[in-house]
User: Which sequence fits this backbone?
């Protein structure tokens, strides 16, 4: 059975974490497949959006608590390597991608599974879904960007408490705290996420990629650095065919038809 399923939907593709019996907990082999799936999406000029979701009742239960993290004859597992080579590489690829990533969080997102969702550009979650900073429960520390995402998204006080207590929070709480974009009824999640993906396939791709870059740099740039970058990217957007089309459409009072990146 493939541990990552890929569904093609015209201009967007859905990547499904597919180990439902383990709530889609990931291991190095599965993350290798996920990296390849992300690479394939990037390489396909017809793909303009990626959706990430999980099979079954979970989104992703984080690192599989199996052989990757078990002590072997040579001593304890090398979690630094596991993080750098697999988990963190996925987060880097999602954040560096030209493509908007939507997480459709269909169930529990724990440990690195929560980070995987939060690394995406827009997170929709089923009302019954939950987010668990599970690391502390097993003596580990937040990784895959969790400390970065939480401190920026929910702030220091809430982020620290979530990381230190490891309590689960429900999707509605996550929405209220600004951790995710929106909660959907469980039965509507996939349709809502699909409609969003469809909508983003019609958006100007160059501008979407530039927005990703702006939000990646904003947390560590000064205002002046960010103003410089915004001006540069606006200059590039201003020279794009999408801007010509956007202006024409506005003046002609019609919907714009943006082309490929
Ligand atoms: O180097 C590095 O970077 C290392 C990376 C570390 C990053 C991490 O992600 S550390 C955190 C790892 N994840 C966890 O600790 C979460 C473990 N799972 C849970 O705490 C719970 O399963 C959940 C809170 C996520 C959900 O609870 P519940 O009650 O809804 O489901 P369950 O019954 O516990 O789980 C269902 C099955 O999935 C169960 O298998 P079974 O008994 O039916 O055969 C359970 O063992 C399995 N499962 C869940 N999570 C994992 C898992 N199997 C392996 N690894 C898991 N992470």
Assistant:
């Amino acid at each position: 059975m493939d541990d990552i399923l890929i569904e093609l939907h015209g201009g967007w593709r859905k990547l499904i974490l597919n180990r439902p019996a383990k709530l889609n907990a990931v291991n190095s082999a599965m993350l290798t497949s996920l990296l390849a799936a992300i690479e394939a999406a990037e390489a396909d000029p017809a793909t303009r959006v990626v959706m990430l979701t999980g099979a079954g009742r979970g989104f992703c239960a984080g690192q599989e608590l199996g052989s990757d993290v078990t002590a072997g004859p040579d001593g304890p597992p090398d979690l630094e390597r596991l993080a750098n080579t697999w988990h963190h590489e996925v987060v880097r690829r999602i954040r560096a991608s030209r493509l908007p990533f939507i997480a459709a969080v269909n169930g529990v997102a724990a440990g690195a599974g929560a980070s995987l969702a939060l690394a995406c550009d827009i997170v929709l979650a089923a009302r019954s879904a939950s987010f668990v900073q599970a690391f502390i429960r097993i003596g580990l520390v937040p990784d895959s960007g969790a400390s970065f995402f939480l401190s920026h998204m929910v702030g220091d006080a809430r982020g620290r408490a979530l990381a230190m207590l490891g309590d689960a929070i429900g999707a509605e709480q996550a929405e209220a705290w600004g951790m995710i974009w929106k909660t959907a009824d469980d039965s509507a999640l996939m349709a809502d996420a699909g409609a969003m993906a469809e909508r983003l396939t019609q958006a100007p791709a160059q501008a979407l990629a530039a927005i990703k870059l702006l939000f990646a740099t904003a947390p560590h740039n000064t205002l002046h650095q960010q103003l410089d970058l915004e001006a540069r990217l606006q200059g590039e957007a201003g020279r794009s065919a999408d801007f010509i089309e956007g202006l024409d459409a506005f003046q002609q009072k019609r919907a714009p038809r943006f082309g490929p990146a």
Q: What stands out?
A: The pocket of T3D is lined by residues 22-23, 25, 61-66, 79, 82-83, 87, 108, 110-112, 132, 134-135, 137-138, 140, 143 (CB under 6 Å).
